[in-house]
Amino acid sequence: MNWKNFLPFLPVLLLAGCTSTFTRVTPLEQPRNANNLYPVEVIFKSNQQAMRWESLKPFVLVNGDLYPLRPVPIVPNRWEGFVPVPPTANGVTYRFKFEYLYNNVGTEPQPGSAASPLYNLKIVDQ
After folding, report:
1. Domains of the chain
2. Which of 5, 45, 75, 109 has a CA positioned 20 to 30 A from the CA of residue 24?
3. What span, in angstroms and rounded, lies between the C-alpha atoms of 14 and 29?
4. Mind listing the pLDDT tens digit for each residue in 90-102?
5. By CB neighbour count within 10 A (0-12 exposed, 13-18 middle, 19+ buried), where does 36 fall?
6. What is the mean pLDDT of residues 83-88?
7. Alpha-carbon distance 26 to 33, whole Å?
8. For residue 96, which of 35, 33, 46 has the smallest C-alpha distance?
């Protein structure tokens, strides 16, 4: 059998076993505030060796809308941002999404993404 027969499956084989982990470091509930924006933070790690870390674009996804995250100074792989919660709502469901490029044998870098599980943030009146 020729190794060229496996070439089309190489990207799949390279990505197999690659995992991304999300560690939410946001409290489960926050007091209601006047601007209706609530901070969220996440630690993102991946063992995907082909990932181009410099291409990473992190977001928080709320009700179909993407809001950018920014890196936390000095702390590697930690990102922060804000989610909007209407003043009449008692909470919001959100997830983190990281878009990136990964190296692919024989072609230009390809787009990829990783998404966290859904998280709930409860807003409590003071």
Report:
1. 22-124 (2.60.40.10)
2. 109
3. 39
4. 999 999 999 999 9
5. middle
6. 94
7. 16
8. 46
Across the chain, mean pLDDT equals 87
Task: Give every CB contact of residue 85 below 8 A, 6+ residues apart in sequence.
Answer: 36, 37, 38, 91, 92, 121, 123
Span 47-72, average pLDDT:
93
3-state secondary structure of 43: strand
Calpha distance 100→91 (Å, rounded): 29
Per DSSP, 19 falls in state -
* Rounded-to-integer distance, Cα 96 and Cα 41, Å: 9
